[in-house]
Design goal:
This protein has six helices and four strands. By secondary structure, the protein is of the alpha+beta class. The protein has one domain: Sufe protein. Chain: A, CATH 3.90.1010.10. The longest helix is centred in the C-terminal third of the chain and has 18 residues.
Length: 165
């Protein structure tokens, strides 16, 4: 099912969230004593991001952070991702990756995304839904999803990823 187009009010709100995270990114650093690290590259626009995380022995993301340079969408996405995933299980990271990707490409809307993840992640989906505005600009989907691809590569023990796969 294709998600409905964004209303003007929702588009404005989403733009404000992305601008805030783009100008004032959260968790812009390298995680101390990280257990995984991966670099992401978007050769189409030059976005580069390095995601680091510390995963506990029982699979909890104790800390997630990033460093990099890129457009506001890429930086905002990485910032929002790091906030949403700190303290979550690795399985949740995979669920949210799929939900965010599907939101960005327009396969689902926020309500449908909520139905695909654990009930306690609804607030995270509401915040991450601001990234769904990129669906109207297909070339920007790679900007929004690059940090998420880097995170999954990090968790899977792969040191690099690209949006050109």
């Amino acid at each position: 099912m294709i998600a409905a187009p964004l209303t003007d009010d929702l588009r404005t709100l989403y733009q404000e969230v992305i601008l805030d995270h783009g100008k004032h990114p959260r968790n812009l650093r390298i995680v101390e004593h990280h257990t995984c690290k991966a670099q992401g590259n978007n050769p189409m626009c030059g976005d580069r991001v390095t995601v680091t995380a510390r995963v506990s022995p029982d699979g909890v993301l104790e800390d997630v952070a990033f460093e990099g340079k890129g457009c506001a969408i890429s930086i905002a996405s990485a910032s929002m991702m790091s906030e949403a995933l700190a303290g979550q299980k690795v399985a949740v990271a995979h669920q949210l990756f799929t939900a965010v990707h599907d939101l960005c490409v327009g396969k689902i809307d926020a309500d449908q995304a909520k139905a695909t993840v654990a009930a306690d992640l609804g607030d995270s989906i509401d915040k991450l839904a601001s990234l769904s505005g990129v669906r109207q600009f297909p070339v920007r989907v790679k900007c929004a999803t690059l940090p998420w691809h880097a995170l999954i590569s990090c968790l899977d023990g792969k040191p690099q990823t690209t949006t050109e796969k």
